[in-house]
Amino acid sequence: MVLIAATVCTKSGKALVSRQFVEMTKARIEGLLAAFPKLMTGGRQHTFVETESVRYVYQPLDKLYMLLITTKASNILEDLETLRLFSRVVPEYCTQLTEAEILNQAFNLLFAFDEIVALGYRESVNLAQVRSFVEMDSHEEKIYQAVRQTQEREAANRMRERAKELQRERLEAAKRGQPPRSQMSFGSTGFGSSSVSSPANEPIAEKIPTTPARDTSSRPTGRSAMKLGSRGTDADSFVSRLRSEGDVAATPAAAPADKPPAPDQKSVHLRFEERLNLVAGRDGDIQNFELSGLLTLRITDENYGRIRVHVDNKDTRSLQLQTHPNVDKEAFRSQGIIGLKQSQRPFPLNSDVGVLKWRLTGAGDDKLAPVSVNCWPSEGAGGGCDVNIEYELEQEHLSLSDVNINIPLPAGNISLVVHQWEGSYVQKGRTLVWSVPLINAQQKTGSLEFTVTPAIPNDFFPLTVSWTSDTSLCLLAARGVSQAEGGAPVPFSHEVSLLADKYEIV
């Protein structure tokens, strides 16, 4: 061990923040720090001082010292380089180099110190990396949260559709004079009935789990048991009740919330999902661009548990690819094959397994944007603005559906006159929503012209753009699926989605 401790201390040797990288007692480190001021005799400025056992490498920070305690066998040049990094880290988190500020930011400093040194040795990091590691900004966590939010929204939507279906059944049954099937599934005599019969041909997925039986004999007869068909019950209250009784609407693993497979979905299903964050300037310059993608694999037949997915990467851009830790990285790197390292093990069944992630970032490259939007407001007569907006598809392999361009409008009483447009438009409060059903290689461009009075050019920014798409921005595609043993082809289905989490023109 070459680096014993890193300390921010006063000139008297009082430790404000100290991180020890070797096992030592409190008395030992306090003794080393107490000896430090005594070694600085004569008021001369040095970089380091030594004793018989340790070396002190230090740098003044106003009225404080950044101090490293190392063994005498350590390389003094490396110690000085490490000291410079420590001295840059302290002002990064402390706005003022005072005792109070150091104590206030003690935990952040300790976390940063641990990123610089591990087990007594310097890590190969710079200041920007230390800042990023301490912030713990995880790209994987963002993707996980985005996938989870999507699953929760889909589950909630399925529950609302199911509630509406049960309401329709109740109304139809009431017209026929029969008890609704939803009421029969809870028992005709309330929760006290433990044996509930249902038609033999009733699908199992439509049976709603009931609560345990309870004794209702002591309750007033005027209060009936809960029924789905009771007065005042609507879809939203039904979803809220299900969530409060077990969070079934937000749990992807819950059986009632499982998404029924599409008619053409096969036992091996691949899903390519991409999400885009883009901020562009008014002149078309890309200020921020971040595309994140995830490939998930779902297997519903145990005969196809041990398979390999062949992926084609025709993208020539600097795409960052990362496979799951259990995936054979060398096979993917050399052949584009996604398979488990332990080929005798199968993939999990009946669950969405993320096997590949990709990321594309960049700023200043106008060719990265899937579609460019040019907003050109110009001041006209009478204090108004003539606005011309034009879009153009930049990536011709894309097909964007249900495109909405949201244009802010000035506050107050305004006069809006639209002269020319593609698709359709509607004014919603202080926003003009321009909708285009489809943008593809055959329908690449479109324009909208309108006049607003009174207005100034800055009133129409920032614009936001949203769409749905079954094409991907990155040129990744599944070439095929085969058995891990023998290489026999396996039938599979796949779906692709590209969504804009944030697409702004500022």
Automatic annotation (TrEMBL):
Keyword Magnesium: no
Keywords linked to the UniProt accession: Cytoplasm, Cytoplasmic vesicle, ER-Golgi transport, Golgi apparatus, Membrane, Protein transport, Transport
Pfam families named in the record: Adap_comp_sub, Clat_adaptor_s
UniProt key word Endoplasmic reticulum: no
Membrane topology: Peripheral membrane protein
Subunit (UniProt): Oligomeric complex that consists of at least the alpha, beta, beta', gamma, delta, epsilon and zeta subunits.
Protein family (similarity comment): Belongs to the adaptor complexes medium subunit family. Delta-COP subfamily.
Role description: The coatomer is a cytosolic protein complex that binds to dilysine motifs and reversibly associates with Golgi non-clathrin-coated vesicles, which further mediate biosynthetic protein transport from the ER, via the Golgi up to the trans Golgi network. Coatomer complex is required for budding from Golgi membranes, and is essential for the retrograde Golgi-to-ER transport of dilysine-tagged proteins.
Protein name: Coatomer subunit delta
Species this protein is from: Loxostege sticticalis (Beet webworm moth)
